Amino acid sequence: MEGYCLAQAISDILLPEEKMKASVDGKSLKKKILPFLCNQLWLVLVHLVNLCSVNLGDDYISCKFRRLLLQILGVKIGEKTVIKGGGYFYGGKLSVGKFCHINRGCYFDFTSSISLGDNVVVGHGVTFITAKHRIAGASRRAGIVSGQPIMVEDGVWLGANATLLPGITMVVEPLLLPELSSQRTLLKIRLLQVFLRQSSENWKI
Description:
Helix content: 40-55%
Number of strands: 15
Order of helices and strands: HHHHEEEEEEEEEEEEEEEH
Oligomer: single chain
Distance between the termini: 91 Å
Radius of gyration: 24 Å
Shape: globular
CATH architecture of the largest domain: 3 Solenoid
Structural class: alpha/beta
């Protein structure tokens, strides 16, 4: 009876809409609460692994131990790949190829999967975001969460503090560096100014 009361109390928190419809029997409560509890235990494990990883150094032994910790979460890591500390891996849907280097302070969101090819270099503070929201009503624009995978192909270099958004595929041609991005944007603005100036002069003629 005590177990059922606890389950009913949890259901009142988790299922406010269904609480108004009808009483829920013990079996259906277990079906709804068990996945919730499993998910919470998984998040605790994720946090503990990241807590251990953050407190490790970047020496050879620490990187080897970090590799083992991440493999507990299901991360697939190729040979000769180095992952530095200070980052956060929000789950285990990550596949990293051979001879990769992931620098300090990177964040991996695993609403969907993330795949890195061989010889990929990830700079400091790079963020991988696979989660996105549907656009909802005016009362709350951020609607239901869904995910799209991120793919980084062989040989790509991601510069420091770059942010990869859901559904993106990076190939080896782009060089994603903040300073280059700003220079290219400035160049485009200047070319546009020249084009508009020439156009206005032509119209005057």
